[in-house]
UniProtKB/TrEMBL annotation:
This is Alanine dehydrogenase/PNT, N-terminal domain protein. It comes from Mycobacterium kansasii. One of its GO terms (biological process) is alanine catabolic process. Keywords: NAD. InterPro entries: AlaDH/PNT_CS1, AlaDH/PNT_N.
């Protein structure tokens, strides 16, 4: 499976959805992991640590979203990400849909 990890875009969210240990485990089991450049900086994890664990690094979020069958995020997508959602893609994240009708509608439209 192609796993993607974009940089979090929600205001004041500095965490990242996977650690290098998680990348190592996924790649050991045959999955491909792509992480957006700088995604781990807020958690003091360098891109080089992800590469050493077997991840590929992509420059832009659009490339991560486009390639991923499974997308890992800490927080729900925000408006600038709604257009990146697509049918058949698995989004693994925490959702607080009661507070965001636009996010709920974007998820429904994406299939």
């Amino acid at each position: 499976m192609r796993v993607g990890v974009p940089t979090e875009t929600k205001n004041n969210e500095f965490r990242v959805a996977i650690t290098p240990a998680g990348v190592r485990e996924l790649t050991r089991r045959g999955h491909q992991v792509t992480i957006q450049a700088g995604a781990g900086e807020g958690s003091s994890i360098a891109d080089a640590d992800y590469v050493a664990a077997g991840a590929q690094v992509a420059d832009a979020a659009e490339g991560v979203w486009a390639a991923a069958e499974l997308l890992l995020k800490v927080k729900e997508p925000i408006e600038i990400e709604y257009g990146l959602l697509r049918r058949g893609q698995i989004l693994f994240t925490y959702l607080h849909l009661a507070a965001s009708l636009p996010c709920t509608e974007a998820l429904l439209r994406s299939g």
